[in-house]
């Protein structure tokens, strides 16, 4: 099997994603193509959407993140570039304080990122729904309505 070296964009976008997702939603959104797709396969079990299509839907969902996931930081990042050079996987550990309620939060994530023309075109995030307090994602949905 021939492997293409990872795109420099892939590494840059992985770093920027981890740095911006919980601190600057607008700068984070600028990392994505206009037609980007974001998927959370396990989110429906907690009342969240499984798929967001396009920058408007992604913005509407992520706008409250910095209010709810305060101090979200990622550690122990491990990267796995895909064979095509445009797709890669991240494994990270996240910690935050959930608001309201000052609830300690810890989660292990697996993130799949596909890039196109220097931006994220497809992002999929896997996480354990049992580690998220019940009601977390329902409150996001209510705020978006």
Automatic annotation (TrEMBL):
<dbReference type="InterPro" id="IPR032710">
    <property type="entry name" value="NTF2-like_dom_sf"/>
</dbReference>
<dbReference type="Pfam" id="PF12680">
    <property type="entry name" value="SnoaL_2"/>
</dbReference>
<dbReference type="InterPro" id="IPR037401">
    <property type="entry name" value="SnoaL-like"/>
</dbReference>
<protein>
    <submittedName>
        <fullName>Nuclear transport factor 2 family protein</fullName>
    </submittedName>
</protein>
<feature type="domain" description="SnoaL-like">
    <location>
        <begin position="19"/>
        <end position="123"/>
    </location>
</feature>
